[in-house]
Design goal:
The protein is an alpha/beta fold. It is 39% helix and 16% strand. It has a 6-stranded parallel β-sheet, with helices on both faces. The longest helix has 18 residues, at 354-371. The N and C termini lie far apart (105 Å). Residues 1-6 have low confidence and may be disordered.
């Protein structure tokens, strides 16, 4: 009897257990986060392997910063947090630039990093890659959390998701100490601890009085203008935004990542008359755009002398009056705000002044006509305009392709020359103007959308993330990279007047970036004329194979800092 009493029931002996690895994977899958961008290493190598085995797509990069840029733009494209996974300390720091970039640009992203144990970090005992990562991350992101117990993984991830996408989206840091992954608990209790986030980004309905005030100001305008920012593109309220713009009859100016919300060829588009509409408008409505440096802070020479009233649609109340007085603030999510504006217009809305729209159209057509001959040359070596002229046609013929763009002159000129036709098809450096986003954005765009990607890169910009061409080849992604190679930063003609070292802005002459792609099994092409470039890009886009085209640009082409040379201080001292 005693022997029988000591024997445990079979069910108790077979208790099912789970651990931190599996709970984190299950929590991600429960919330539809099924793609991870990152770099493997201590202490998250096994987590990556297990996540892949569980059906999560894990894309391994060559540098954490590029994985972070991929996660950030994935958030912009999907409205779900992009997930970046890094190792501790140096890997975490590499991902931190991308996390800050995501927060600045209002992209939902979660940076998940392994870390050293708290008891060792707090006593500063010199652990492997010891760093108080949570404290470092906090000032650079929207929210930061640390999970110490396996039973809290579900809540920790849920808080990160909600923080990333609710209100104004942004970057969130989630700190996972190494011991957390190996913690074991009852599987059923673990399952119950997981949280499926419900209504992570609830609608924020604007006040009726704010809608009426905004429409009254717009109705009283003689020269109104609508500016669409990337927040409007992120909102995915495309039909409502188009209906509102067309019903208003007001010219619109798209910021770079809002291009394509309405086609750049739309009769109300003022993109080719930017200087005119900024200077001469009397009422400006901002939808998902901020009056930051990209819009000269809403004041100064770019805005002319005429007094202006501003209407601003934004989900963040603190954004109002950040640079100038906002006469009609409309606070709420963009989809709800635009829907309310449309309803408030009713059926009797009178379109904006036709003489103003006519003047804008005339200026746009005049500027387009001036530019046209420059885009049709077949010079060798190429200049920027000849090269962009053929790429402009390719995008027109392939409006579903995603354009990734970075550089100085390459960025500024591409933005102005290449028309976009559909929303969220142009991805670029965003609010910070940060270099190095190119290859990460290419990878995420291809993975998240399944669409072909065309990247137009300055040779300097490409250098920040160029090694990720191996990643593109490894995953066999439909990415065509065009490098505008003029042998340097801005130009390749600067000279060191006092020594044998090259000037700081000059690269190796005649570099063959195309051979980098060939080294990893992709297609490399060297193009010296616009005609050669056109043939090469079309062949690459048709094939869907990873391709890099080295487009040889005249080294003398380009200007200092592109179109923002005024931000680059010049010495007032005379050279001796």
């Amino acid at each position: 009897m005693a022997e029988a009493a000591l024997k445990k029931p079979e069910a108790e002996e077979a208790e099912e257990l789970t651990d931190g690895f599996n709970l984190m994977i299950d929590a991600l899958k429960l919330n539809g986060l099924t793609t991870i961008y990152g770099v493997p290493g201590i202490p998250i190598t096994d987590f990556g392997r297990m996540a892949q085995a569980a059906g999560i797509r894990v894309l391994s990069f060559r540098h954490e910063q590029n994985a972070g840029y991929a996660a950030a733009i994935a958030g912009f494209l999907t409205k779900k947090p992009g997930v970046c996974l890094t190792v501790s300390a140096p890997g975490f720091l590499n991902g931190l630039t991308a996390l800050a970039h995501a927060t600045t640009n209002c992209f939902p992203m979660i940076l998940i990093s392994g870390s050293s144990e708290r008891e060792v970090v707090d006593l500063q005992q010199g652990d492997y890659e010891e760093m108080d990562q949570l404290a470092i991350a906090k000032p650079l992101c929207k929210a930061a959390f640390r999970v110490l117990h396996a039973a809290d993984i579900g809540i920790g991830l849920a808080r990160a998701i909600r923080a990333a996408v609710s209100g104004r989206p942004g970057g969130v840091y989630l700190d996972l100490p190494a011991k957390l992954f190996g913690q074991v608990m009852n599987a059923e209790a673990g399952k119950k601890s997981l949280v499926k986030v419900i209504d992570a980004a609830p609608a924020q309905i604007p006040a009726p009085t704010a809608i009426k005030r905004a429409l009254d100001v717009l109705k009283g305008a003689k020269r109104p203008l609508i500016i669409l920012g990337k927040g409007a593109a992120y909102a995915q309220a495309d039909d409502a935004i188009r209906s509102f713009v067309e019903k208003s009859g007001v010219p619109f100016l798209p910021m770079s990542m809002a291009k394509g919300l309405l086609p750049d060829t739309h009769p109300q588009c003022a993109g080719a008359a930017r200087s005119t509409v900024l200077k001469d408008s009397d009422v400006v409505m901002l939808i998902g755009a901020r009056l930051n440096w990209l819009l000269s802070h809403g004041k100064g020479k770019a805005w002319g002398d005429a007094p202006k009233k501003f209407i601003q649609v934004d989900i963040e109340p603190k954004e109002m009056d950040s640079n100038v007085e906002i006469a009609a603030p409309v606070v709420g999510d963009i989809g709800s705000c635009v829907a309310a504006l449309l309803e408030g217009m009713g059926n009797s809305w009178t379109k904006g002044p036709t003489d103003w729209m006519g003047a804008v159209s005339s200026k746009r057509e005049e500027n387009v006509a001036k530019m046209a001959p420059r885009l049709m040359n077949n010079n060798s070596p190429m200049d920027y305009h000849g090269a962009l002229g053929v790429l402009r046609t390719i995008i027109k013929e392939r409006p579903d392709a995603i354009l990734v763009n970075e550089g100085a002159n390459t960025l500024d000129l591409t933005r102005g020359v290449i028309d976009m036709y559909k929303p969220r098809k142009r991805l670029d450096v965003g609010t910070w103007g940060v270099m190095g986003i190119g290859m990460g954005q290419c990878i995420a765009a291809a993975v998240e959308t399944g669409k072909p990607v065309l990247a137009i890169e300055g040779d300097s910009a490409f250098g920040f993330s160029g090694m990720e061409v191996e990643t593109i080849c490894r995953y066999n992604l439909p990415v065509c990279i065009v490098i505008f190679n003029n042998d340097g930063i801005y130009r390749g003609t600067d000279v060191n007047s006092v020594g044998s070292d090259p000037a700081p802005t000059v690269f190796v002459k005649g570099s063959r970036y195309d051979r980098m792609m060939e080294a990893f099994g992709g297609v490399g092409i060297h193009a010296t004329t616009p005609d050669e470039l056109k043939r090469a890009v079309n062949a690459a886009m048709d094939s869907g194979k990873p391709t890099l085209i080295n487009a040889a640009i005249d080294p003398a082409a380009g200007s200092e800092s592109g179109r923002i040379g005024n931000l680059n201080p010049q010495s007032k001292l005379k050279k001796k």
